[in-house]
Amino acid sequence: MTVPDVRLNDGAMMPQLGFGVFQVSDEEAEHAVEVALRDGYRSVDTASAYGNEEGTGRALRASGLPREELFVTTKLWNSDQGYDRTLRAFDASMRRLGLDYLDLYLIHWPMPGHDTYMDTWRAFQKLQEDGRIRSIGVSNFTVDALRRVMDESGTVPAVNQIELHPYFQQDGLRAFHREHGIHTEAWAPLGQGQGLLDDPALARIAQAHDRTPAQVVLRWHLQIGNVVIPKSVTPRRIAENIDVFGFDLGPDDMKTIAELDKGARVGPDPATFEMA
Ligand code: NAD
């Protein structure tokens, strides 16, 4: 299975579908990433907060795949925000991953009340200038936080990784991203599996295409231009989630899914989430 790339605003290419490892132990991540790489995934999304950068790194090395074929994302945790702390946290993540450059580094949450994301972003710019990171981006950033980063640093984040699924479609933020050349990356693309995948409208579309509801949801993301990083530790589902390039949803299917939006998050609200 070959996954198409999207071009980021800094010219780098990123696979449109990758593999997420949130809430997976170090050992489980090693195994799941090995399975995913065998199935054709080339992009992996981890974070220092997930505690599985070492297992992820072991699986990347064990794959024997050339480094340039892999796209690795990790994230700077909230308690590491600030210029010097960021530089140290980046080194620690790279040691755990066992890599000498990173494809994409994200500020995990803006924590606007702490007011440290600008200093953090300046450290990201420095690491990119030094050639240690190919692309720099953010996660869970609101329009206000994105505007401030762009206005004060002159650099547009390559990516904003945000909660996004049919029950929480984020049309306003997606339009802002489009206007400014920021790529939308969807976390919890399957709504973390809770409820969403049992939706009767998705079941009907899935049946009509002889696919599963998870495949229909991932296909919808791809057709609206999102990068997606579904997570599973079950080999059958890992394979199912990348097998989404051999069919198309029609305009009626897309309209039905657009109408499922309930504005319902599964995760915290970034405007108020300050856990450090
Ligand atoms: P997800 O939407 O990918 O859902 C994963 C869950 O869905 C699985 O645990 C499983 O229960 C179910 N599932 C997966 N494949 C299935 C299938 N084919 N059929 C039926 N059920 C299936 O949720 P997620 O893990 O929260 O998000 C994906 C990735 O996004 C994470 O692993 C992580 O890398 C990233 N993420 C980032 C943030 C952030 O703050 N930046 C937050 C959460 C997640």
From TrEMBL:
Belongs to the aldo/keto reductase family. It comes from the Bacteria. This is Aldo/keto reductase. The record marks K75 as: Lowers pKa of active site Tyr. It comes from Actinomadura physcomitrii. The active site is at Y50 (proton donor). GO terms for molecular function: oxidoreductase activity, acting on the CH-OH group of donors, NAD or NADP as acceptor. Substrate binds at H108.
